[in-house]
Structure to design on (180 residues):
């Protein structure tokens, strides 16, 4: 089975909030989860309440929708392995790659791709200024400016890695859109 999910399939799966919440609930686990556990977590996020306060009706509504509609579609697209008889959902390699495709940007933030493009433009301008001996770039050696640029990219990459690691996988926090 290919781990590459076609973009159209990805967007179709991720177009629904319950399916996005399900993906978030499954991220960070390699083990199958019970549909009931996923339904309870999704219901808590949908109702903005603690999981322990989810009512039977709230859980049942989500459970039924997941079992009859969302999980079969996600299984068909290869995002999860849905075993209706056992009532379990297991992540697939394609699910692990969803974060590669989805660049979640919260209000007031810029996408990392734009950040790196900007950092590259600033670095190019700095190198051009160093090469033409423009003041104040003559105050430091060429090697110092090169080290500065490398450190800027290294620090940015570490921040990006940390940010993606803490937000990209489910660490018990609600999906980012719950807080919006």
């Amino acid at each position: 089975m290919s781990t590459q999910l076609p973009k159209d399939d990805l967007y179709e799966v991720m177009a629904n909030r319950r399916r996005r919440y399900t993906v978030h609930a499954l991220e960070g686990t390699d083990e199958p989860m019970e549909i009931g556990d996923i339904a309870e977590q999704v219901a808590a996020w949908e109702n903005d309440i603690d999981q322990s306060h989810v009512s039977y009706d709230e859980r049942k509504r989500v459970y039924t929708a997941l079992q009859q509609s969302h999980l079969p579609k996600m299984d068909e697209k290869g995002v999860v392995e849905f075993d209706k008889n056992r009532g379990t959902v297991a992540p697939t390699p394609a699910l692990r790659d969803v974060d590669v495709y989805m660049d979640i940007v919260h209000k007031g933030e810029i996408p990392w791709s734009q950040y790196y493009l900007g950092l590259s433009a600033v670095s190019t301008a700095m190198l051009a200024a160093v090469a033409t001996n423009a003041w104040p770039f003559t105050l430091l050696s060429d090697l110092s400016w090169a080290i500065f640029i490398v450190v800027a990219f290294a620090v940015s990459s570490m921040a990006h890695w940390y940010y993606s690691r803490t937000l990209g996988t489910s660490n018990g926090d609600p999906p980012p859109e719950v807080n919006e």
Remarks:
- The mean pLDDT is 85.
